Structure formats: C-alpha cells, structure tokens
What we know:
This protein has 59 residues and is mostly helical. 75% of the residues lie in helices and 0% in strands.
Amino acid sequence: MYSNQFFYHYSPQYNDYYRMPNDIQLINDIQKAINAEYSAVACYERLAKMAPTKDETNT
C-alpha cells in the first residue's frame, strides 16, 4: 500500500492511553488559569465601583 516501509501506523487507542495523564493535567491547568482570570476581572470591577471619583475609576 505505502512505498515507505517505515511508515508509522497511527493507533489512536495506544497513543491516547499514554497521553491522557498529561492532557488531564493540561486541562486542569487551563481551567485554573481561566478561573483566576475571571476572578481578577470581577475583583477589578468591584474595586472600580467603589472608587470615589471617575478619575480613580479609570486608573
């Protein structure tokens, strides 16, 4: 079928099994970063609403 005798046959079950722990850790890290970013934005919005003047709100 292929002229290259060293053709690598991709086996999704084999590769996905060994990649799963790294992928789960990556997903957890991304989720943690997104949640932290959301919390920071929410905190900045609350602080801006508490500012006594518009000038302080915009800085």
